[in-house]
Write a structure and sequence with these properties.
By secondary structure, the chain is an all-alpha fold. The chain has 14 helices and no strands. Helix 3 crosses helix 8 and helix 4 packs parallel to helix 7. It starts with a helix and ends with a helix.
Length: about 300
């Protein structure tokens, strides 16, 4: 799994990104408690991320670097970018956050964290050359089992909620399609361009939502935006600058370097990093189930990476 220094670098970046994403629940929870809706949080964080990435791209152009590219090379590729923005942005965040209103946190965390299985299935279905080997399949299943052990934490009772669980599965399906669509996108375009497209199309796809719920659009008036508490601005800056702009850039880069199957398997670490964060900040207890599940995830990911060689 860590066969060379360059390979180690890619794996380390993937782990750090997932660790940051695993900690964002605190910022998101604080923003929800402050009165912001899931759609407002998503839109504000993506606006911050897009503006910063756009400024970076224009700065590179002015300094004599790579010319600024606004559109893709052909309309088919532009449709691909739109699909990435919908699956990795709009639909993913709306379905994941909405699921929390109809089912338990455990159910949502468990179902969404199994998105690598969905991604592996879709990639194997649409890209014959990237089909999983037996060792990779075994590793993916073992890591998925580890996630189940970590999330359930010895309490093997799930409270089924058809609507909420379906929304959570929809989020996992969206991330699976996002991972799969990144394969052709990464072959043709650089990471900054693709990530910028994900942000802008994710934002544009929110327009119908705000037409449907105009009351939530009032957050974007000057009177509302400038009346928020300092803690709200700080959490939005963290989600926009770090968890969105930097992490999406790093993640899309890692997808290109490690391959979609191996990189996406790092999502299995999401509940692990969340629990570690809760242990360090909130003094929550580490259990034997957490240790066992983490060991299964590590072994499964080792096999999944080894199986591609």
């Amino acid at each position: 799994m860590l066969g060379s220094s360059s390979s180690f670098k890619y794996h380390l970046v993937a782990f750090v990104v997932v660790a940051i994403w695993g900690s964002t629940f605190v910022s998101t929870k604080m923003l929800l408690l402050a009165g912001l809706s899931p759609a407002q949080i998503f839109t504000l964080r993506f606006i911050i991320a897009y503006v910063l990435l756009l400024a970076y791209s224009l700065t590179i152009q002015k300094s004599g670097g790579k010319p600024f590219q606004l559109f893709s090379k052909c309309w088919q590729d532009e449709v691909l970018m739109f699909a990435l923005g919908i699956t990795g942005g709009t639909l993913y965040f709306l379905t994941e956050n909405s699921a929390m209103n109809y089912t338990t946190t455990t159910n949502t965390s468990l179902i969404v964290s199994l998105s690598p299985l969905v991604a592996s299935f879709l990639i194997s279905l649409f890209f014959r050359s990237l089909r999983l080997t037996r060792v990779q399949a075994l590793g993916s299943l073992m890591a998925a089992l580890g996630v189940v052990v970590v999330v359930l934490n010895g309490h093997f009772v799930l409270h089924l909620s058809p609507l909420g669980d379906s929304l959570a599965f929809g989020a996992a399906l969206c991330w699976g399609f996002y991972s799969m669509l990144m394969i052709p996108a990464n072959l043709k375009y650089d990471t900054v361009f693709v990530t910028r497209k994900v942000f802008i199309y994710g934002l544009l796809a929110m327009i119908p939502y705000y037409l449907w719920k105009p009351d939530e659009a009032t957050i974007f008036t000057s009177s509302m935006l400038f009346s928020l508490d300092l803690s709200v601005y700080l959490n939005l800056l963290f989600l926009g600058c770090v968890a969105s702009m930097l992490c999406f850039l790093a993640w899309n880069w890692v997808l290109k370097k490690l391959g979609a199957v191996v990189a996406t398997n790092y999502v299995y670490f999401n509940p692990v990093t969340t629990i570690l964060f809760a242990w360090a900040i909130l003094s929550e207890q580490i259990t034997i189930y957490f240790l066992l599940g983490t060991a299964l995830i590590l072994l499964g990911m080792f096999l999944a990476d080894r199986g591609k060689r």
